[in-house]
Amino acid sequence: AALIGRPTTHLDIGIVRAGTHTLSQAISNASTPIVTLDACTHADLRSISQAISADMLPCAALGLARPWAEQFHPDTPGHAESSIRSHRQPLLIMAGSRHPTTIAQIDRLIAEQNLLMFEAVPGLDQQQQRAWVNHMCNSLSVGHSVILRAPRLTLTSPAERRALLELLGMLAMQVCQRVQPGGLLITGGETASIICQQLGSHGVHIG
User: Fold this and answer.
1) In three state form, how does the secondary structure of the chain look?
2) Which end of the chain is less congested by CB atoms within 10 angstroms, N or C?
């Protein structure tokens, strides 16, 4: 919401976990039409889905879409999950966000799945970039997902942050020019903006 310059109301995890009725009232009583909410677990997402009324438009990822869809089709809660798993293709995951929750989620994903991981740093020379792109393309080609993540260290310089984002965008573009991953998963609004620009995207279709 901040990227489009619209006022927002943010509800933290305490309100999300205060119960469906309390959360629904907090959303309805918000002073702005756009409301953002914290969520750390599937239970949090389920609570949010139950608090959404018919006149609200939820905008989020698959984690919220599933429990929200179950409100309309309660008899088949596992259908979407099993269908997605049976058709899963390797993902190129660009983890540009350094938010603690995102870092924890990426760490868990790496620990639980057979994923190739690269940690990008500003100043990566061209020889290393070519080697990384080759390695990522080879991994995706044989069905293995790849994570390219931002460094854990805090980049205080705006120039360094911009250089890192441009590096992530350039690497994503070079990989996608050579192979077609099953999906491109991006964390971080600035990261998504840069990568979409590098890929020549003119918009995002939600549907």
Assistant:
1) CHHHCCCEEEECHHHHCCCHHHHHHHHHCCCCCEEEECCCCHHHHHHHHHHCCCCCCCCCCHHHHHHHHHCCCCCCCCHHHHHHHHCCCCEEEEECCCCHHHHHHHHHHHHHCCCEEEECCCCCCHHHHHHHHHHHHHHHHCCCCEEEECCCCCCCCHHHHHHHHHHHHHHHHHHHHHCCCCEEEEECHHHHHHHHHHCCCCCCCCC
2) C
Residue in the block written with tokens 């309100």 = 15
Structure tokens given for 95 = 């983890």
CB atoms near residue 75 (< 10 Å) = 6
Nearest partner of 175 among 125, 127, 132, judged by Cα:
132
Q: What confidence tens digit (pLDDT) does each residue in 93-104 have?
A: 999 888 888 888
pTM: 0.58
CA distance linking residue 97 with residue 189, whole number of Å: 8
